[in-house]
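From the pipeline queue, job 12 of 40. The input is one protein chain; the requested action is below.

Action: predict structure.
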Amino acid sequence: MVPSSGQNSWVAVIGLETHVQLGTDSKIFTAASTAFGDTPNTHVDPVVFGLPGTLPVLNCKVLEYACKAGLAINCSIATHSKFDRKQYFYPDLPKNYQISQYDEPIATDGWIEIEVIDKDGQSCTRRIGIERLHLEEDAGKLVHGGADQLAGSTHSLVDYNRAGVALAEIVSRPDLRSGREAAEYAAELRRIMRYLGVSDGNMQEGSLRCDVNISVRPDEDAPFGVKVELKNMNSFSAIQKACDYEIARQTKAIRAGEAILQETRLWDEATQRTRSMRSKEGSSDYRYFPEPDLGPIEVSAEQREAWRAELPELPAARRHRYVDVHGLSAYDARVLTDDKPMADYFEAAISAEVDGRTVDAKAVANWLMGDISAHLNANKLSVNALPLGPGGLAELVALIQGGRISGKIAKEILPELLAQGGTPGAIVERRGLAMITDPDLIEAIVAELLAAHPEEVALFRGGKNKLQGFFVGQLMKKTGGKADPRLANQILSRRLRG
């Protein structure tokens, strides 16, 4: 439960340190595999353990991925950077130090744009500064065990498979002001990394992890308060809830005259509150010095621009284009671009020509965000696994827009298309579902209905106009929902009025 902080809360100052596992096949300084989920301690070697006589060698693909990530978040790529040793004693770091970057990181001084959608669907755009992106190696993983979880673990096991996996640590500037903004910032970083293909961003597997630094102050112009670190946030929901809790906790404590300690705290999902873990170390505690076993990194201007040319269109640019060019709402654009395969599918569908014409982008978006997304979620599928391709969806929308089928008929054949694929037009033809657009045929059916329901006709002509809906329903029932609704209403309205 979030503690009450009074009516007028202070201003929060939030920055994130985001650790992104780069999706290379081998680790940052060795050829050991980065495969996830295998038997513990099988993806290790003497370099990972830092045994005497071994030397690290930088993985070139790691450098490429880091530079592309830096360019995508608008950083300057350093022509010269270096690695450092960070003295860090912990059971899951076998060398007792971590190879990282300290004073000369690979990328600095960037920014990303975030969009926060309010409850009314309105979009607020903010630019969040990026202080740096630096490379480092990941630590292993501690697995705590014990039958009595309330009393704590009785033992801990160490899995070094993750040790030495390449990390890009992205450090934001303290530009965030709420838990919601912090969660959206982390989500946008993940979108960017996934669009680039440099990381899968899977938070459940630890591929993207966030540490939150947070303090409060009485107003926007006041000095920063004492910073508290929230460690290892592993979901966007946890980031938002932990920030909101911590803002309220710190504000309440300051108003009560209590001192805020510089410490590391953990978010407890079960109790929905933060709890103290340890006092926070400073950079001097790590005793950095240049890594003696690795030379400096040199990135030429030609190589940097070659990597820049390979960058795809990124989420923010796509969102703007979908709004400006295709007329989608900010909400629709955000939903479609959240997942790159979904955005690619949308683009392929609106680019496909059916009878020499493209289809309405909003209609395609509605099908993707509605029935199709519901099918994907229910069956835990990616849009890439759908038997119905983008061209098939475009044809379905064209059939509706061309008046050959109704939306009701489209929903009726969609499950078959999603399960088996096929051509919408062929299914409509085979099942005899084409819309009835012949005025003479609809006139004849209407005449039968009016003759069969004289009382309702008399009531309608006596002023009960809502009975037209009754006749529309009867017409649709008689035609199996295939009568052209617009034409049917026109004919019914004329005939009912005599």
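Job complete. The mean pLDDT is 90.
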